[in-house]
Amino acid sequence: MSLRLPAADESVLARRAQIIADLSAIVPGEGVISREREMRPYESDGVTAYKQMPLVVVLPETTAQVCRILKYCHDTGVRVVPRGAGTSLSGGALPLADGVLLAMGKFNRILDVDFANRCVVVQPGVTNLGITKAVEHEGFYYAPDPSSQIACTIGGNVGENSGGVHCLKYGLTTNNVLGVELVLITGEVVRLGGKHLDAGGLDLLAAVVGSEGLLGVVTEVTVRILKKPDVARAVLVGFPTSEDAGDCVARIIGAGIIPAAIEMMDRDAIAAAEAFVNVGYPLDVEALLIVELDGPEAECVHLLEEVRTIAAACRASTLRVSASEEERLGFWAGRKAAFPAVGRLSPDYLCMDGTIPRKQLPLVLSRMRDMSAQHGLRVANVFHAGDGNLHPLILYDAALPGEMEKAETFGSDILRLCVEVGGVLTGEHGVGVEKRDLMPTMFNEVDLAQQQRLKCAFDDQGLLNPGKVFPVLRRCAELGRMHVGGGALPFPDLPRF
Description:
alpha+beta; Uridine Diphospho-n-acetylenolpyruvylglucosamine Reductase, domain 3; Alpha-Beta Plaits; 7-stranded antiparallel β-sheet; FAD-bd_PCMH_sub2
């Protein structure tokens, strides 16, 4: 396994008993977990290939406790890793041997439902689906819907900027979060945004959403809720090749049609999902698209015919439109169960998360098939085709020597290909540790240094979630140094103060 984490600070390890005692005074009762057996469930997140036991686990219940914990860690030089439900698929919540794992699961209350302003205020431990459940009786819902929405929490969604099948039309978490309460590493509380749509000045809220726990700990979130559309219809379209399906996606978007969702699965994923939920997916096709159209009924009827015409031009072999709400939900049940269903095909798999321009879908799918043969590992494709967010599932057996390393190499090759064709390393899972060492593929030294300067503005000692996102750990003071090349200062004509 190629994973590297920051070297543990021996002085912190030597103070473990004192740190546990001090934290127990801040969070009394059962708020501190320090026995190895009891900490074992926290040793990894959704990427179970990577494991590390934390120094100690703390479960605060109030913002005041979070403030005291972070201030204590800042004053004593102890690292902190924030954690939501642990469903991250990039190793973003992986603990550190000398770090406090700050688990936010007890922050699980809905604080305010404001239908007049179409927003909800929640604590970060509320599940994604829990928000929709709280407002659906009035015909509202929360749009971002990751496949793990039954378990993943809104705080984790904010950390990773999660998406879901409907993010094509309704946006990712960043497009649906209006405000947060954030505790800095110094213990200070700041509020960014609120129930209003926008605020003047720097858009710090956008910096926090997707910051992967590097800037602060979110203790409250204000999200936008939407009215459910009048009509929603889902279409299953089967194709003889993945390239035909990819071409159909590009043509639908190119025609000016913005469906609520366009999802794609290849043959292996289709078979696994169908065996898991039995919703009637066609098993004689190489690729399957699920296209959902929503809005006024007349608009949906018109767009359905447009999609039929485009699909036929792309050699679609089957097309089935949902005849009821129950059937529509059944189509999505298979897609949302695809990740666990693929567990039937292999003992282990790595889920990748690159994003590409839609027009590159046929090329990238073809290249991935060649890579699969080259590395000797199967790959099942399940992804958000409408916005080019790929989720190739690389199948391997960790019990076989060398297979884990082969899978990691295969995954790195896929992500490099995404960048090569004009895409990015991640669409919604975050960088974490999984993609950390690939960041120079997409960013140069200047880019990375500028990103780290933002980190330093929030966390001057680099105590929050170190070892994630940035391939090289640097102290903030190192980023501010003047570099001299060839005996000359840069830009010598500028005045120096």
